[in-house]
Every structure is written in structure tokens, then in C-alpha cells.
Amino acid sequence: MSRIQGYAKNAYPLANFLAPLRGARYTAQLMKLIRELTFPLIAILAAFLVGGILVALIGDDPIQTYALLIGSALSWPDGIGYTLFYATPLIFTGLAVAMGFRCGLLNIGAEGQLTVAAFATAWAGISFANSSAWMLIPLTCLVAIASGALWATIPGVLKARFGSHEVINTIMMNFIAVGVASALTQTYFKQQGDPILETLPIGDGAHIPRIGQIIPGIPARIPLNMAFVVAVLACALMYVFLWRTKWGYEIRATGANPNAAEYGGISVKKQIVLAMAVSGGLAGMVAINEVLGYRYRYYQGFSPQYGFTGIAVALLGRNHPAGVLVAALFFGALTRGGLFVDIFTEKVSKDLVLILQALVILFVAAEAVFRRRMGKTESQV
Amino acid sequence: MLELRNITKRFGNVLANDRVNIVVRPGSIHAIVGENGAGKSTAMRIAYGFYRADSGEILVDGKPQPIHTPHDAIALGIGMVHQHFMLVDTMTVAENIVLGAEPGTLISLDIRGAGKRIRSLSEEFHLAIDPGAVIENLSVGQQQRVELLKALYRQARVLILDEPTAVLTPQEVDEFFQILRRMREQGKTVIIITHKLDEVLAISDEVTVMRDGRVLGHRKTAETTAAELARLMVGREVLLRVQKKPAVPGRVILSVRRLSMKGRLNGISFVIRAGEILGIAGVEGNGQTELIEALAGLVGESELSGSIDFDGREISRLSARQRKELGIAHVPEDRQRRGLLLDASVAENSILGVHYREPAVTGRSGIMLDDASIRARAQRVIEGFDVRPANSELPARALSGGNQQKLIIGREFELPPKLLLVSQPTRGVDIGAIEFIHRKLVALRDSGCAVLLVSAELEEVTAIADRLMVIYAGRIVGEVDPTLATNEEIGLMMAGGSRTSDED
């Protein structure tokens, strides 16, 4: 109790200042927001600091390197366009992992789910290639979501029914996903003589428009497409689902304390299956960006581990849809900037971006230690 | 021996200790009492070097000593046993005790020599602890004695014990007090932090009362009373015994017949009527938990046999949710594990169990949570049950134990219940809140609700219940009139008559 008063009066002068204006409820929320934002921001700054030292050690100028990194990620229109494009799949996988986390599940299988979804989406796009766009786009989107959801439901059911751990099962399902998609592609969907393991192209009706085709001023060569809009909508929907509906309440209650959820008449097993299905569906939506919006086919290795980067995005975004959105944009910007760093600096390669990502995660994870330290002096009066 | 002089400590804007003065005489048992948050643990943690005071000084044997870390305290002969034990479960007693103070040279650990010393210490104080035993095989009471040994092994002359009896059964408490008296005889000084007044009166020589970070008085235990201490602690007159009218039982609300659960419950039968409180006394672990959970619908149907009739309807196949809909409310014994979403807000906690229906969910869709009506409900609970601080947006974790409990009880009262299953309603709750909760339970009874009350505190069940059953080894061993039965009588039944010691 006193700890909270301590926060209210001391640590967050801004929230305190606004208190009389907005009422206690908003103060509490604002305080929470500030508290939530502090650590990720510190983590990012610390990561850039350490990364800068590394750059200097390698022999390049850190300030120039960072200027290049940030400048190329935020230039108009290409920088921003590509940053948003690279962020899109990470929004989906970040949301997927966050959804699992909210129910106390660690879905490491987003990679497998999006692989299966991408293949299934391509399959639908090829098989019904002659349908009109009005039919085909909804159908292929639905297939993307449903196939991802289905793939994730399997470990969900295994957990609910037999208690087998979702981490093990989702990892295993990743291997199966890649294997099955490759085998089917090789056997049934490959173009004769194509040296790359990829399917035939999907029907034109399944192509979703690029942003450049809709908004004038953005060149159509930038692959940013409607999937980004879908991703932003998904963030909003996930927020509403988790915090404004009774289903979301049940998922969060299960994640927060399964014993209490059971006491509250919530079927923990049902929630586990449901959360895995929704999580898998979100991961599957990566296919909308990659298959329907960009490559127009499935090919093996299209995902540079979006599913695993999604874990980092969720962690940095604190498992909140808004946080995931921001974290994914940040990671997208790093990816875009990394390419330029790779080309235009003498010594630093684009691995700098991976190092920065790893450092951010390291520092975010260190928060627990940090909070314990603070807790030691502030709690338990 | 140990003296705190003008100790002041702030956490943020909270004054946890305000010019605290405590003098502990050598060779005495000194109780420090106060409600949760009164600053007693803070003061003692400062004495143990866990926190540093903002101002003031600590005197050991009359000399001011800088105690900045627990190491300093240990070097001065001050030991502390925390409420939550700090033991490694998979290691032996001896290994745990030497941890951090390993004997022997750099590479050779002289665990055998340590074992010998531990054994002789254990004998000296009649602790009956085998240095070779593995911690996870020991009972909670035994683990606590290992913690005592740890302090004694480090040659503590002053032992600070933070709420040591919170985890013990009544029998273990008696045993534990014997050990403390033996320590006093051997010249040790014991400081015991507690909020249970009967324990203060039973064990201590002197007592210091704290409230809101200040010391409000020192007394010789022999010269004070529970009523006086309670008044100092709470700051007003406290009714230690609830005022209640005789019960006016109505129709039968709950009728349980031959309820059994393998190895846990053995043919339990009883009825509860509207407007009465049926108490169940018993040593913990004799089937109370299972009984309540079975009635609440939290035990798998396949594990149970027998029948449960609620309001004329067989309910043993209904889910927890369906039972709640019929009007069966449940205050679980472990509020943090079962009863709360600690990181969720008070408002969200106030709808747990009814979150899927009116009034938490409104509108045509039937799926969207209604923020305004949830907040209104939370506000009713907060006001009706004096939950502090009165902010429905705070996480439940931020509330003290007593306020968490009031939140749960308030939520269950909102159901509204025809039958309330309530387990350990005042465990870890401070005196003011205990009085409040008891009054609310009696008021609920007077409004015509049936109440099944399980408590390990004999005082509590005899004070509140209209009828009292005793449970032992999953079986109801008898029913007594709580106004007539003596504690000895009930205690004997709780111990299963004469069959106590040969059970395990």
C-alpha cells in the first residue's frame, strides 16, 4: 500500500501533477503507462550505447553509423515504407506471442504456424486462381488465419488434455511444419524445372493492393501493402478482445492465476485451447503480407525467423498490443537501417542490428533483476 | 542488549519508522506487536542490517554500532528468522546451515565437523533436528527449527523472529514456545514480531506496541491485558468477542450425505439451515480444504461419492460456475493462490466469477464488459467492506492481506449468496479487520444466509459459529455446542481422541 503511495507522490511527478485534472482512475493508468514505458526505453538506450562502443571498437564512427541507420530507416518515402513493410510480419508474430503470454503460454511455434499458413494460403490462391478478387482475397485470408490457428490448436489441445508442455510441442511442430510444406511443395506445387523450392504463383485475384497503389505519393515499388493496415487493425482488435470482452477476461485470468480462474468458474483447459488458436491465427496472418501482398507464392525459407523475432517483439512490447506495434516498428526500422549500414560503412556489417536486438532483449530481461533491487528497498514496510 | 534509539526510516513519502525507540533487555523474550504496516518488521530489519535507517542509532550491549549489512549484525550476535524461510529444499540441514559460512579450508568442506556442532546445538535446545535430513522431507515446523539452528550456529545471542507462528499449527505453536523458553533459560534474547495478542501474552516478558511507524507504548506483559494492547494497536476500543444474537435457523439450505473422497473425506454428512453458521474446527490438513472445494465444485466429479443437496436440488454434478449461479459463494482459504488475480485491478477482481454475465457484461452482444457497472460494483465492495486504499484501479497485490481478504469477502457478498463457504477468513488479517469480518459474517447470517465456516483458529469458530463440528482425518468426529464446550474438549476431538501420535 505504502509502496503505491510512494509511486504516486514521488516517482511520477507528471502523473501526480495531472491527478486533480483527470481523477484517480486516469492517474493510475497514466502512472502505469509511464512505468511500462520506462524500462523498454532505458533498455533501448543502453543497447545503443553498448552497440556504439562495439562499433567504435571495430573501427567505425558510431555516430555516423547510427545516423546512417536511423536516417535510412526514416527517409521518405522509401525508408519509412520499407520500415513499415518489415514491421508488418513482426506485428503479427509479436501479437501471436503476446496472446499466448497473456494466457500463461509460451508459443514458440509461431514460426511453424506461419509456415503452414503461408503454404495453405498459397495452396488456396493457386487452387481457386480463377475466382474473382472479391471471393479470393477473403478466402485466402481466411485460410491463412484458420490454418495457423489449427496448427497452434494441436499443441493447445495436447496441453489441455494431457498437460504436455506447449514449449516442447510447438518447437516440434515447427519442424513438422517446414517438412510438410516443403514436401508438398516439391511434390505437387512446384513449377517444372524451377531450381528454387517454391510453389506456382497464386492467382492474380488473390493479390492484395500495395499502399502505393492506393495513396498517391508513395511509389508502388515499395512492397508495403494492405497487410500493414490489417496488422494495425489486429492490434486494436486484440486490445478490445483482451480487455473489453468477457473472453479476454477469461484468458487473462487464466494467465494471471489459473487457480483463481478455476475458482471463478473458468475452464482453464478451454482457455488454453482458445488462446493457442487465436495466437496461431495471428501468426498465420503473416501469410497475408508475405504471400498475398509480396511474393505471391510460397517458397521455402521466406521467413527470416519472424516467429522467433516475435518473441522479442512481444517481450519489448510488454505483451500489450500497442507495445507490440511500437516494438515491431522499431525492429522493422533496425532491419531497414541494417541493410544500409551493411553497404555504406567500411567495417560494420548488418549483424550490428542483430546485436542491437539481442542487447535490447538482454536489457529488457534485466528489468526483473532491477525491479527486485528496487523492491528490496521499497516493499515490505 | 539491543537498543534502537530514535530510528527513522522513509520509503519514498511513507514514514515507515518515526523516531522508534525500543529497548530489549538481555535474556528476555520481547514481543513487538502492531497491525500490518505498523513498521515493526522495518524496525527489526534495520536492526538486522537489511535496511539502513535514515537517522538514529543502534546500540548493542550499550555501545553504538554501525550495522550496515546482515553480516555486521551476525558478527555482533544478532540473528533473524524471516517469515519466509530461506532454505534450499534439496540440500541437507547441515548443508543449509553452513551455507554462506562454510567451515574448513578453501577446498575442503568440513561438513562432518559442522554436523557434529549442529547436533549438539540441536540437543542443547531440544530441537530434535537431524543434520543429515534433507529439507524437503521436513515439516514446516521442523524447517523453522532449522532456521533457528542456522542463527544459533552463527552464535547469535539475539534472535529476531518475524511472525514465526503464522505457518504453525496450534500444537506446533506450543512446541515452538517451549523452545523459545528454553532459549531464554540458556541466556539468549528473543525478539518476536507478531500481531496475535494471545501469543504475546503467552510467551513474552515485555511488549512494545507500534502503530503507523511509531512506538505507542512499552509494557511488562504481566501488567497488561489483551484489551489494552488491542486498543493501543488499533487506536480505538476493539471488541475482541463478537456480539451476536442467538441464531434463528430456517429451512435446510445445504444437505450433505456420505460425501467421500478417496483418502481425504470419509462419509461426511451434515445439514446447514438458513440463518445459521455451522463451524468446522480441526487441525489443518484433516480434509477441510477438500470439503469446501468439493462443495464449491472445484473437485473433479469422478473423485467424489455421496450427495450434495442445495436448496432441494442435487448439485454434485454441477460446475463451479453453475453452483455460483445458484447462490453458493466461496471465500477460499488461500486468498492469493485461489481467490485473487494479484496483478489485476481491484475492479477486475471484484467481478471474478460473475465476469461473464450481468451486470459485468451488458448490452445486446453479451460479450462486452461494461466498464461503468464493473466500477460501480467495485465501488460498492470498497465502500461496503472498507477496502483501503479505496481505489478500484490499483492492482490487488498493492493491498495488505486484510484488505485483500475484505475485497474477496465483499465480492462474494455481492453475489448475493444463499450459502457462503468461508475458509480461514481472518488468517494473516489484523485485529481491526478481524472484528469487521466477524461482524459481517454474523450480519450475513442474520439476513438469512447459511454459512459454513472453516477455521484453524479455535477462538474464531467458537466465537462465531452457532453449531460446531470437529473434523479429524476426513471424518466428522462430533458436534458440540460452541457456547458450552470447553477448549480442552474440542481440542481432544481435534486430535482424534486418543489416536493422535500413532497416526503417522
Averaged pLDDT of chain A, please? 89
Low-pLDDT residue spans of chain A: 1-22, 375-381
Please give the most extensive interface between any two protein chains, plus how many residues each contributes: A-B, 37 and 51 residues
How many helical elements of chain A?
A: 18
Kindly estimate the percentage of residues of chain A that lie in beta strands according to DSSP.
under 5%
Spatial shape of chain B: globular
**What is the helix content of chain B?**
25-40%
Query: How many structural domains are formed by the residues of chain A?
Result: 1
Q: Which ranges of chain B are low-confidence, i.e. pLDDT below 50, for 5 or more consecutive residues? A: 498-504
How much is the radius of gyration of chain A in Å? 22 Å
CATH architecture of chain A: Orthogonal Bundle
CATH topology value of chain A:
ABC transporter involved in vitamin B12 uptake, BtuC
Distance between the termini of chain A: 9 Å
Structural class category of chain B: alpha/beta
Please summarize the sheet with the most strands of chain A. none
CATH class wording of the largest domain in chain B = Alpha Beta
The helix-strand sequence of chain A is HHHHHHHHHHHHHHHHHH
Oligomeric assembly: heterodimer
Strand content of chain B: 15-25%
Q: Could you give the count of β-strands of chain B?
A: 20
